[in-house]
Each structure stands twice: as C-alpha cells, then as structure tokens.
Amino acid sequence: MINIAVLGYGTVGSGIIEVLNTNGDSINKKAGEEINVKYVLDLRDFPGDPVQDKIVHDFNVILSDPEIEIIAEVMGGAEPAYTFVKAALQHKKSVCTSNKELVAKYGPELLEIARQNKRNFLFEASVGGGIPIIRPLNQSLTADEITKITGVLNGTSNYILTKMSKEGMEFKDALKQAQEFGYAERNPDADILGYDSTRKIAILASLAFGMSADYEDIYTEGITKITDKDFLYANSMGLSIKLFAKAEKVDSKFYAMVAPAMIDDNHPLHSVNGVFNGILVNGNVIGDVMFYGSGAGKLPTASAVVADIVDAVKHLNVNIMSHWSSKKLEFTDIRQSKKQFFVRIKGLAKDKLAEVEKAFGKVQLVELDELKDEFGFITSIMTEEAFEEAQNETQGIITRIRIEG
Amino acid sequence: MINIAVLGYGTVGSGIIEVLNTNGDSINKKAGEEINVKYVLDLRDFPGDPVQDKIVHDFNVILSDPEIEIIAEVMGGAEPAYTFVKAALQHKKSVCTSNKELVAKYGPELLEIARQNKRNFLFEASVGGGIPIIRPLNQSLTADEITKITGVLNGTSNYILTKMSKEGMEFKDALKQAQEFGYAERNPDADILGYDSTRKIAILASLAFGMSADYEDIYTEGITKITDKDFLYANSMGLSIKLFAKAEKVDSKFYAMVAPAMIDDNHPLHSVNGVFNGILVNGNVIGDVMFYGSGAGKLPTASAVVADIVDAVKHLNVNIMSHWSSKKLEFTDIRQSKKQFFVRIKGLAKDKLAEVEKAFGKVQLVELDELKDEFGFITSIMTEEAFEEAQNETQGIITRIRIEG
C-alpha cells in the first residue's frame, strides 16, 4: 500500500478523491500497489464528508509522516505551495501538481531537488487540464527537435471567443455567460488578459527547448479588444479567432507570444471550440502532432493528477522527468518575427487604398456589406516592427489581428 | 554506449538511420547514453550507402552478439518478424517495432516474454505512425476506464476520401492519384478494404480494455463503395465521410467495427484530412481526448520507433508496458449496436416516403437538386439488426452509410 496526501480540498482536490473512488480498482492494478489517501490538507473542516477523518490543518503532520510517499499539490498559487512542495521533495516525497503558477515560476529548481532526492516532481495537469502533453513531450517526442508549439491553452477565453463566433455575441455578454456557467471566475483577468496562457506556454517552451522560459519575458495580449465586428470579417473569410499561445525556434532564435490570432480551416487548431484546449507540436522529423481535450474542469484535471500519482508509484525511487536547464531561455523581441496581419480601418477602400498601400505595400481587401464606414485588409508577410511603422503612418486604423499559419 | 540493430533497411529502416543522424546529439542526451547502430539486417546490399559496413544478412549474427541491447524491427509482415522478435526477447534484447501485423497477432505473447525477461516490447509506431498514442494509453490515461476509442487510422483511405470530398473526384481517380503520390501501394487492398484499420483498432482495443482483441472478429467494411454522389449528400449536410475504426464498451459489452461513417463538424475527427490520422479516446473521468498527426510516412514513423528506442535505453532492465491479458476480448455482434443510418434510395420522395417510413419509422429527408431520380434519408437511432430488417423490406435502396456521433 502506498500512502498519499492531497494538499487542498477544492475543485481538483475533491476530484482526485472522486477519481480514486470511481476507478480505484483499475488504478491500483495499473499502479501495481493500492493507493491510499491518508491525509487531506485544508484550512476548513468538512463535517459529514467522507474525507473529514483525513483532514489535517497542519502541513507538518504530512511532512513528518514517513508513511507518506507521494503528495498531490492542488492548492494553486505560488505560496504556500512552493514552500510545501520544496519541503516535501527534500523529505523524499514525490509531488504531483496541477499548479501552473508553481511550475512556471519554480519548475527547474523543483525538478532539480526531485532529481537529487531520487523522487519525482510531475505536473501533467498544469497545462491542458486532462490532455496528456507534458508526458508526451518528455517521453514520446524524444526523437525530435521541437521547432514550434502553438496552443489554445485557456478554456475560458476560448469559450468566450466561440460564443462570439458562432452566436454573434458581444464580448461582455459571452463573458457574463461564461461566469454564469462557472467557466470564468468572478475576476476573469488571468484568463481574458492572457496571463494564464502565458504561464502555460512558458512551461511548454521550457520542456520543449530544455531551458527556463520566464513567463514575464513573453509578449502577452488578451482577448478583451476582440469585437463582434472582428468576427464578421473572420467568418466571411472562413477564419476563426483564437487566443493563440506560441513558442518557436526560427534560425536559432526563440520567439514566444500570447495574442489573439486568425487561423484558417486547414489549421488543426481551427476547430478547437468552447472550453476545449488544443496543443500543436511541430518536430523536425515527426512534423505536426496535435493533442486535444478538456483543458480544465474538476474530473479531467483530477484524472491527469491521478495518472501522475500512478506514475510516481511505479517510479518510487527513480527520477523520470527530463529536467530543463536552469539556463535562461532568451527570447528574441517579437518585433523581429514575421507574419501577416488583418487590419480594420475607417473609411472607404476606394478613398483610402492608396494611402494604405503606400504604408503597407500590396494588401488584400476584405469588404463587408454590413459595415459601410470601414473596411479590412490583409498585409503581406512582414515583421511586427515593419507593421508598427506602417501602422503609425496610417490614419484611422481600428484594430489589427495577427494571422497565424 | 548502447548498441542496437535495425531489422529491415526499407522506408522506415532508412528513416531510423536518418533520424539518428539528424538529431543524434539531442537523442543521446535524452537517452542518457550514446546510441550506436551496430548492424542493419537486410537481404540486399547497399554499396556506397553509409550503412553498407553494418549490413548483415544473417539474423543470428545479431542474436548472438551480447553487445546488442535493443533491436528495431521494421520489416513488416508476420514472418520472419515474429520468429526474430521472439528470439530477441528470449535473448534479453528489447524490441521496438512499427509492425502492426506482428503486434495485432502476437502482442500478448511477446509482451509476456518481454516481461519474463525484464526487457521491453514497444510498438508506438504500429498505430498512427508518429502520433503518440500507445504510450499515452499505457502511461497517461491510467486514471480512467476507457469507454470508447474511435479513429481515422488509415492515411491512404483518408487521402482518397478527402480528395473525393473536397475536389469531387471519383473513387478510382482519387486512388490513382494516391498511388502516383506514393500514398497508396500498387495493391491497395489492405488500406481501402479496411484491414489495416482493423489491425490497428484491435491493438488499441487490447490496450484500452486489457484483453486480447482478435482482429478477425472485427466487422470490417472498406471505402470502395463510396461514390462522389455520397459526398454530394454529405457535403449538403455539412458532414464528412471517414473510414471510421471504433471499439467501445456499452453496458459491459464490447463492440468494434471498421466502416465508412458520416460525422458532423462538431466531431473532433471531422477535420482530420488527407494522409493525417486522428484518434479520439473517451475515458470515464477525462472525457474526450484526441491525438492527431501524420499517420504514416518515413520520418514520422521512424521518429516513433526512435522514441521507443530512447525509452528502451532508459529502461534497459525494467519492464514498462502494461501487458494486456491473453484472455480473449469477446466482441458482441454489432447487429446489437445502435446508431443512425443515412440511406440513398431510387425514386422520388413523394412516391416512396410512405413505404420507407413503414419499414424504418419516421425518417428525415435529404433531397438534392442535382439528383433527380433518387433521394436520401436519415433514420432514427436503431440497431444494425433492425436496420437490416427494414432494408430488406424496402425496394430500391442504393447504399447506406452509418452516422457516428
């Protein structure tokens, strides 16, 4: 029997208990050992709940119990998670976490402590909820040099964008609906401003490129400026708009960004709708591989944590994660990266096209019958820097959205 | 240094050498050892090729060399692959294979021999080419009871169907083009009649349900009867037609089949086009997860074999695959399984609808302006058996295609 402790009895924590209760027999068989939840750490009590007897309020009870081999940390936030996890690993307890903030901020340090102690620090659930992506990157795509990772990594913003696209809703109404359905938090900033995606792409970039990506270095733009009019254009062109997270290596330089992007219907992420996530990985020999599934939610996330627990049981004293180097992954300013841009501008094409093409070079017009006092255009491929310069030379630009191929 | 041997210097075999040459440094780093190809087994010689010095014609040279720790078997076919692989495992050499026939036919036996010898029998490349699916099923989705696996598992037939759908090509022209581009073999039967998909879904079903699925028990229907007219109907309804491979557990009964199916644009496999493969896994806690990528091709397949080699190096004396039980997975006759059907029938709806609804119950009409002397309809959900009975009572049915949700 392997004794474990769960830190945090919130959504994911109670999901872990539910998954272990539901599939305990097959899970124990796959782990080769019976998994027993000995403690659940929470500040609250849960009278009447079956876990009440296992609730402890003091982490030191867990830390000092030599029977505890594995700890599932699902509290979220940097502290006290970091202090607890570090101490656990130093006390030779493996840790499985769903905490993207913890991994994005302290990943290399915690992986190194795990390695030194011949234990494991596993974090499948920190990116893409239940979608297997960390383990495939770590163990399956080992024959490849990863050249690019793009993802729809935030279910909340993707739900909002999908509602705007399919039902013509305005941003604020779609956000309100997402909140009503529990897909968005009361303070949705981390999701809709892109920061959640930034932390996740930093984790994926670190794993893919083997160095420490600092999420604070990553250009981040949220979805709050996307309007129903943008979707009129996108739909007319057969494009979808996604909050795109991207990390890539081009000519030995690394670029990363999070921003809304238009993608066409040949793109594997085009049909990632609603609260689903999709992660597209490009390797230099395997080509494109995509992973798709529920990016959040109690049970999918708990499923990923429990799968990590099973792996930790099977590798009690063997370190299995590739650790990424603590060397900083230096991103090149995205102003040097190249792409096409979609631009909306006030006025009539017949009056403004000459001015536009003087600044941007040859463009492709997108005019909509519904919108009489503006028009759209698509630029040729240009650097972000050249785009900015052209934008500054042009009057009346309403918005611009990047186009990703 | 770890010495390996490659059995077969065809497409995948030469791909393995190319992948090791291209990404050798990073592969060795991830493996923690330098991987050295000591032998390549082939009946032919390759004068002038860098591998010529490593070519051997006699498998016993490899088998009897104690320096060889791992063997990559990429010859294809049941024999002599089975004899070689069995002997290799008995001689305590791990085996990594891309050979779906071998795995579908001898999987449980070879896994058991590997386990007894504390070596590994790995076969990521046998299903879905480069797509990580075997390892995720084995190691990532361990918290779940898998309830259903559906897949577009054959790139050749999917290429043909995509050409028919997008360009209105007829079957024979699309097949000819696939052969010209090297996507279909001169004898394409295994692909277009569905047998390739059947072997692959048998492997996935065995892993997912932990028992041995015999591919000969699986109902198989190819794509040779699909016509451009079927696509007129499908496109008018926004549906795509895929060669669908499916294995599922419903009320403790197992069903499996390979057959063309219509799916709507909310289905994650809807946009798996061309030579790509997609595999959708449903687990009882994780929900839907999809894996997508190149289902075949020299380098993607070689990438999967090399990733297995890396895993075999990291687990030289540790058995890591869940072995499925040799207990036979008993499939229930698909005549008991339920779904909707799309049917094309000669005549005019106004003349025939009463007869149709007498046999099938209420149906949903699909009439096309282009096709004057026939019409289509969609049945309600019914068993295959009830469908057959109704079909036998009805005159003039041209074809039927299952609809999958």
Automatic annotation (TrEMBL), chains A, B:
Keyword Amino-acid biosynthesis listed: yes
InterPro entries: Asp/hSer_DH_NAD-bd, HDH, HDH_cat, HDH_CS, NAD(P)-bd_dom_sf
EC identifiers of the protein: 1.1.1.3
SUPFAM superfamilies, alphabetized: Glyceraldehyde-3-phosphate dehydrogenase-like, C-terminal domain (SSF55347), NAD(P)-binding Rossmann-fold domains (SSF51735)
Catalytic activity reported: L-homoserine + NADP(+) = L-aspartate 4-semialdehyde + NADPH + H(+)
Keyword NADP: yes
Pathway(s): Amino-acid biosynthesis; L-threonine biosynthesis; L-threonine from L-aspartate: step 3/5; Amino-acid biosynthesis; L-methionine biosynthesis via de novo pathway; L-homoserine from L-aspartate: step 3/3
Signal peptide: none
Binding site for NADP(+): L7, G8, Y9, G10, T11, V12, G13, S14
Alphabetized Pfam families for the sequence: Homoserine_dh (PF00742), NAD_binding_3 (PF03447)
Sites where the protein binds NADPH: K100
Annotated NCBIfam families: PRK06349.1 (NF004976)
Protein name: Homoserine dehydrogenase
